[in-house]
Design goal:
By secondary structure, this protein is of the alpha/beta class. A nine-stranded mixed beta sheet has the order 11-10-9-12-8-1-6-7-13, with helices on both faces. Helix 3 crosses helix 4. It starts with a strand and ends with a helix. The mean pLDDT is 89.
Length: 261
């Protein structure tokens, strides 16, 4: 089977600046890492490949710096990677991001299964995976805690609220891995030595490589969600310690004095 796992490079710290014009994060010069939820999605894919055979490729959308997470995924066990990168894709909201990923995946070729993480730590929308499936016109299941190939279909165990469900889903399909479903493996030093920088296993797809050449479908132009205003919250260090008895009453007095109640 052919598996595609979508991964993303996210800031490795909460101390990031915001572009006051576009309302997007300024990622240049900021320490970055692979989205933690995508690590679990990748581990799930690698486990499926080990049991069923096939190939696993990772796909990421972002600037050239995102090549680092693609290399990390290859050192973990992925066969190759694809970076969807172009200035025209910058500033995309959830809809434009999912459509760009869809266009890039269509340019890649056939697949049986696409796996995404539950969400990203920088956006936290948990919508890209489902929207990607809708763009591709394939079935999908979110919050997947276990997946196995049985009789040519994918049997998934997934969670909704406080209930666990089991369902079969026909391939090709997309699943969003739930958080905490596994412990991702570490990158292999042996593979790193063998592959070097792994550049030969990574393909870069730009705007010129995709079928839909309408720029209004990508980046800021293709994003119906517009940021009216965005700012960094004030970091206040003022604090007041309350001790003794009748803490509830004392806390209320403090809140009242600051006009919070």
């Amino acid at each position: 089977m052919n598996i595609i796992v979508c991964i993303k490079q996210v800031p490795g710290t909460t101390n990031v600046n915001i572009d006051p014009v576009t309302g997007t994060l300024i990622r240049d010069g900021v320490a970055a890492k692979m989205n933690p939820y995508d690590l679990e999605a990748l581990e799930l894919g690698l486990q499926l490949i080990k049991k069923n055979g096939g190939t696993l490729n990772v796909v990421s959308m972002g600037p050239n710096s995102a090549l680092e997470v693609l290399r990390e995924a290859i050192y973990m066990g992925a066969d190759g990677g694809v970076l969807i990168s172009d200035r025209k894709f910058g500033g995309a909201d959830v809809l434009a991001t999912s459509y760009t990923l869809c266009s890039g995946i269509r340019a890649i070729g056939d697949y049986d299964l696409i796996i995404t993480g539950k969400q990203t730590t920088d956006g936290d929308t948990a919508q890209v995976g489902s929207e990607l499936a809708e763009h591709l016109g394939i079935p999908h299941i979110a919050n997947v805690r276990k997946a196995e190939v049985k009789g040519g279909v994918l049997e998934c165990v997934y969670q909704l609220d406080n209930k666990i469900y089991t369902a079969d889903i026909a391939m090709p399909c997309l699943i969003c891995a739930d958080s905490g479903i596994n412990t991702p493996r570490l990158p292999s030093f042996k593979r790193k030595v063998e592959y070097g920088k792994a550049e030969d296993r990574i393909r870069i797809i730009t705007f010129a490589d995709i079928e839909d050449q309408d720029e209004n479908h990508y980046g800021l132009k293709g994003s119906p969600t517009k940021v009216e205003k965005i700012f960094e919250p004030d970091k206040k260090v003022e604090r007041k310690m309350i001790s003794g008895t009748d803490l509830a009453s004392k806390t209320y007095d403090v809140l009242k004095a600051h006009k919070f109640v």
